[in-house]
What does this fold into?
Amino acid sequence: MENIGKIPFNYEWRNRWIIIKEFIQNPVKEIWFLRDKFKVSELYTGLAKRDRDLNNPNIPQWLNFGYWQEETTYNGACAALARKLGEIAELSPKDQVLDVGFGFAEQDILWMRENNVGAITGINTTEIQVEIAKERVARAGLAEQINLQVGSATEMPFAENSFDKVTALECAFHFNTREDFFAEAVRVLRPGGKLALADCLPRVGREINFWLRVNSNKMCIPFANQYDQHIYVEKLKKHGFLNIQAIPISEYVFPAAVHYFTQVGQQISKHDIAIDLQKDNPGIEAWSRDRGWFMAFDDYVLFSGEKPN
Ligand SMILES: C[S@@+](CC[C@H](N)C(=O)[O-])C[C@H]1O[C@@H](n2cnc3c(N)ncnc32)[C@H](O)[C@@H]1O
It folds into this structure.
């Protein structure tokens, strides 16, 4: 308990140092990342190919930062974040859900089991993830209820008024652009339907500088998506959404997630790392004071909005 509020390192300099170090270690790879044409599916295909557990059906394949309010392991925190989004979306058995950017469909399996939703359709641009996700869904006995396909959030292959809910768990920052996705989401939702997102963004007042630009490129985030939560809400309104909610959850995401990712790659398996929620969390105030950011982000918000009836 006595460690609460203590800052283990200066986040801003730590982040800058990581960028510089990665450039010195592998300039060719880093220049490859900075190409304008670098695609998000290349990023996730590379990650998948490096994962030794990719074909192990017993190991979850979550790909988000997690919600670390009570959970102390990565898989537990990722599932908790999916549950949070399910709550905001008010998932129910009558829902036809479109889940965009589903990764390996872990959240779809969870929502089907825990929320018993009517049916889920998923689209994702990364082919290898779609392939593996389909196998995992079939193994879970859910192939009838969860239909996954390759497709883009900004050009959806669906007719208007097709879904009750559209969900995007930690992926809309990648879309080119996020606003084009809002336009597609409002089109495919039925009147009264709901869009729910768990999304990363720059916090209010963050300086838009060189480091943010470099990191955005490396993380395949179109620079047009780098705006704060107030502008985000305005853009949802502009696209016709009503009853918009914005729930900030950074304090339960970044500080613990950073400690988790710092330990990944060290001796212990990433699935066995346990975070000490007291000792390993300096608190969001310390994090903000020291201009903490992580993989280009420093704010995490759950958003929702409804299509007018
Ligand atoms: C950070 S991962 C999140 C995966 C999953 N939602 C989870 O929480 O485990 C981002 C996902 O978005 C997908 N993605 C990125 N751009 C996309 C687009 N334009 N359309 C559909 N999916 C996209 C990626 O392939 C990847 O699966």
About this structure: The first strand starts at residue 96 and ends at 100. The beta strands are 96-100, 119-124, 146-150, 163-169, 189-201, 242-248, 299-306. The chain has a mean pLDDT of 89.
